[in-house]
Every structure is written in structure tokens, then in C-alpha cells.
Amino acid sequence: DPQFGVLNDQDQILVLRGDPIYSGILPTETKVDLADVRLLAPVIPRSKVVCVGKNYADHAKEMDSEVPAQPVIFIKPNTTVIGPQDTIQWPRMSERVDFEGELAIVIGRICKEVPREKVSDVIFGYTLANDVTARDLQKVDGQWSRAKGFDTFCPLGPWIETDFQPGNQILQTTLNGEVKQSEPLTSMIFKIPEIIEFITSVMTLLPGDVILTGTPAGIGPMQAGDNVQISIEGLGVLSNKISPRAN
Fold first, then answer.
1. In this prediction, what percent of the chain has a pLDDT beyond 90?
2. How many CA atoms lie within 13 A of 245 on its CB side?
3. Which pTM value belongs to this model?
């Protein structure tokens, strides 16, 4: 059965009892080497993934869109979530599937109407995300649910960093080793306190909910067999391949 653990500096994992988001960090006596395990998505939201669109000015520009006056939010179903090294499945009905590297926030408690000065109280930690998008379907539909809602369209990982402090770290996405996106987190239009304050003014967030904070310019299509890697210093590397298009 899947288990949670804490990764130490020696690339060993201390196995935990239960889910740390719900039960807290309860260590066992068992340690395993990182090289001997398969990492799954570090969180499977029981409720939802809430995403912020057009949160980098250069990305809004490349999408021929104005910078929004307030956060633009949408939801990906929790069935989109996969883990590091899992395969993104190219759906039959789409001809173009894009990568979008993002910083993700993992929520640690039930929260509603959170003022921006209190957002640290509700954050469990941070991880990496790929807001995979069927770009052609997004254009056809004029909204984003189908284009971003396919199974496997939200890789998360490789782990949750509970001590991460967002600052001027660089969000970078590579495709087959070639840098496609590279932008400091400070370029976000709406910062994390504003994002959480806004989202919780709309809806209740539950433990294990995930917030995707937006992608910078440089998005683009993936082809069958391509390897996409997303990294931020302190959060590791999230790596996934894309399958051939379904028949």
C-alpha cells in the first residue's frame, strides 16, 4: 500500500503513519532509501485543484490577453493528478497538448475567508505542478474545463516542501532538455497571500486541496515521447513523459 514519508539529507525516507496533512507527522522506526521506492503524487486532493490563470504578464501577452484586474480562477478535477515519472496521456480528441510549469500550494486545513496576513496558517507546503492543457480544445470551447480536465493532466511532485518560502527562485521548464520557461516567482501578478485571500472569499478550501499559481511565458506543445521537466530551487524536479496520441 502507498505510504507517506519524510525525506532527509541522506536521501533516506522516514516512513510515517497515516497521512500527514490529516493526522500530522507521526514517524515510525522504518527508513528506506529514496532509490528503492517509487514516488507517487505527494498529495491526491480529496476535493479539488484550484488554478490561477494569466498570473504572469508575459504569459497573458503570449495568449493575446490583457493582464486581469483580479485573479482568474478555474478548477481541475482531482482525477487529473498523477505523480513524478507518470505518463501524461494524450487524449484522442486533441491535436495539441501543452505543458505549463507552475508552483503549487498544498492546503493544510479547512479554511474560508482567509485574510492575506493569515495565509501562512493554512499552507501545508509547496510542490511543483504541470497544468497540462489541450490548447486546441481550449480555443474551441472558449472556457477551460475540458481542455484542462483530462485524466493525467495535473502532474504533481516530486514532494511537498513544508519549509519553502517563495521569493525570487526561478521557475524553469525544459522540454527534452531545452529550456522553454524561465521566470522568477516574483513575476507573479498576484502573490500567494492575494491568491489565497481571493480564492477563499469564493469557496471553502479543504485539507489536501491544491492551488496552482499560474505559468510564465514559454508554454508550448509536447510530442509523443517528449520529456518535460519542471523545477524550482528547493522543490526538486518534476519529470513526466507524454504518450502517443490515443487512437
1. 91
2. 11
3. 0.96
